[in-house]
Amino acid sequence: MEQSDFISIYPNIRFGKPCVNGTRISVYDVQGWVAAGMSVEEIIYDFPQLTEEDIKACLKLI
């Protein structure tokens, strides 16, 4: 799968920051949650619209 299957950039959504497709959740938000110590399971619990594959795609951009 390609990165574009999970991440999109639109100038009118979150000021053009890369976001998880179909959401307004930015890649940087996901990276910050992981850096703060949240597990993938905790992130998915708090944001059920995200999948494990979405989170992995966000982390590949580091």
What features would you describe in this structure?
InterPro entries: DUF433, Homeodomain-like_sf, WH-like_DNA-bd_sf. Helix content is 39%, strand content 6%. By secondary structure, it is mainly alpha-helical. The protein has a single domain (3-59), classed as Winged helix-like DNA-binding domain superfamily/Winged helix DNA-binding domain (Arc Repressor Mutant, subunit A). It has a two-stranded antiparallel sheet. The two termini are 18 Å apart. 18% of the residues are buried. The model has no long low-confidence stretch (mean pLDDT 95).
Low-confidence stretches: none
What is the SS-derived class?
mainly alpha
Question: What would you report as the Rg, rounded to the nearest angstrom?
Answer: 11 Å
- N-to-C SSE string, H for helix and E for strand: EEHHH
Strand content: 5-15%
Taking all residues together, what is the mean pLDDT? 95
User: In percent, how helical is the residue content?
Assistant: 25-40%
Query: Which sheet architecture does the biggest sheet show?
Result: 2 strands, antiparallel
Total of DSSP H or I helical runs spanning 4+ residues: 3
Euclidean distance between termini CA atoms: 18 Å
- Give me the count of strands: 2
Give me the CATH fold name: Arc Repressor Mutant, subunit A
Label the CATH architecture.
Orthogonal Bundle
**CATH class bucket:** Mainly Alpha
Which strand order does the major sheet show? Answer: 1-2
Looking at this structure, what is the CATH superfamily? Winged helix-like DNA-binding domain superfamily/Winged helix DNA-binding domain
Shape: globular
- Tally the structural domains: 1
